[in-house]
Write a structure and sequence with these properties.
12 helices
């Protein structure tokens, strides 16, 4: 709990500070006087003024107790009286170009930060599962495309693009996510061995998918759920079906009933499916233990999950997959970071658009509770995972703020576009109306996100 709280506060503090720093630095560069730079709201925890400030500046820096936002307060005639000798330093007197640059600099700073964080992950390196496929789920697109399990995925791309090397299973999963959510077919080059061996190309027709929400059901329909792993029994709970049957940690499962088992995911699917048609039957398992082959009768327990009856045995199933260290050089890592920001931004915008037209469930909106949970989990996994989490949230913050919604930075840019086209600024009456509409939209989105967080936590 403490790790989650600290990771969440650090994430918010860094991302908000960078966002507001973007506004601040651009304002200073364009000759606007900044009165206050605040990270957080509520009671003041700390405040200071640097002794050396840029000409025309007298900025107070503040840290608030509630780290849920921040602001940069600039000299502005619309907020307070401005002395005539300082009128040229006021935000509202600046040319349209300067005002637009100052407003856009916050979201852009978040996107630049995300690119650097992704690049840092690429430079440090991260251990990820090797792109070796488990047997595809029965009836899935992967099975129909001719995959059997055990194939090494060398390269892949969206249909029509040039094939590129896939460094790990996570790279493959990201490619499949993009293809599935954008209704694009995916072309894969697979081989029987990592190096050498015969290779072949096949197409996964993801454009024909029925499921479109980015959840486990989507990948189950694709048929590629996890990398190949040994069908080993891990930690066993004494009161579960595995414990009652006498299974032990380290047992390697070779057969379940009349089905030969080759992979941990395959074993998990057999267990899940055992309750599909009623109470799970007693099944004869063949396991290897200490060089001996044993027959064990196992009857899984039935559980309800996402409205479905599934089988459970009360034990961890499947060994950790083979890992490969993914690390890139300085330029390659930076370029890959920039590309990932572009891909995540484009995908986020498309998902938001599909939510607006009803093609995607609003259940995919996440709020602060989910973000805090992800922050804690990523921090517990290690530095590179936490940096990747920060990068993703930074992209989301940048994209969200660029949306043309009043009260957001994108809403102000929308006002400036109107001013550029008509030659007249938006009137005060319309500004008030639009701000009200924007606030209602923002509060509605926040309410839905909070509801989703609570509903998820309550199961």
């Amino acid at each position: 709990m403490l790790t989650t709280l600290i990771a969440f506060i650090v994430a918010l503090g860094v991302l908000i500070a960078v966002h507001e720093w973007g506004h601040y630095r651009m304002a200073v560069a364009r000759g606007v006087k900044v009165l206050r730079f605040s990270v957080g709201f509520g009671p003041t925890l700390a405040r200071w003024k640097p002794r050396r400030q840029r000409p025309g500046q007298d900025t107070e820096f503040v840290i608030g107790a509630i780290p849920l936002g921040g602001y940069v307060r600039m000299l502005d005639e619309r907020e307070a009286t401005v002395p005539p000798e300082q009128r040229h330093l006021a935000f509202n007197t600046q040319p349209l170009k300067s005002r637009a640059l100052i407003v856009a600099a916050g979201p852009v700073a978040n996107l630049v930060l995300a690119a650097l964080l992704y690049a840092a992950v690429n430079w440090i390196g991260v251990d990820e599962p090797r792109a070796v496929l488990a047997p595809p789920l029965a009836g899935s697109l992967a099975e129909k495309a001719g995959l059997h399990g055990g194939e090494f995925v060398r390269r892949g791309a969206l249909a029509g693009d040039e094939l590129e090397p896939l460094a790990s299973f996570e790279s493959l999963r990201w490619l499949l996510t993009r293809g599935a959510l954008d209704a694009h077919d995916v072309v894969l080059e697979v081989a029987s061995a990592p190096e050498g061996g015969r290779s072949r190309e096949l197409t996964l027709p993801l454009s024909s998918l029925r499921a479109r929400d980015p959840d486990a059901r989507l990948f189950r329909e694709v048929g590629i759920v996890s990398p190949l792993s040994r069908p080993v029994i891990g930690e066993v709970m004494p009161d579960g079906a595995a414990g009652r049957a006498g299974l032990r940690e380290g047992d390697v499962v070779r057969r379940v009933g009349g089905v030969a088992v080759h992979d941990g995911q395959q074993l998990r699917e057999l267990i899940r499916a055992s309750a599909a048609d009623g109470p799970p039957p007693l099944a004869a398992w063949q396991v290897e233990r200490g060089g001996r082959v044993l027959d064990v009768d196992v009857q899984p327990d039935a559980r309800e999950e996402d409205g479905q009856r599934i089988g459970r045995i009360g034990a961890f199933v499947g060994a950790a997959p083979d890992l490969v260290t993914v690390r890139l050089g300085p330029l390659d890592g930076l370029w890959a970071g920039a590309v990932r920001v572009w891909e995540v931004s484009a995908l986020s915008l498309r998902l938001l658009g599909r939510m607006l037209v009803g093609e995607l469930s609003l259940k995919n909106l996440s709020g602060p509770i989910a973000i805090a949970d992800y922050a804690g989990k990523s921090a517990s996994l290690g530095l590179t995972y936490y940096l990747g989490f920060l990068a993703f949230i930074s992209v989301s913050l940048g994209v969200l703020n660029l949306l043309p919604v009043p009260v957001l930075d994108g809403g102000h840019l929308m006002y400036y576009l109107w001013e550029a086209v008509t030659g007249k600024p938006v009137t005060g009456v319309w500004l008030e109306r639009l701000q009200y509409v924007g606030m209602c939209l923002l509060l509605t989105m926040m309410a839905i996100a909070m509801y989703n967080d609570v509903a998820h936590r309550l199961g």
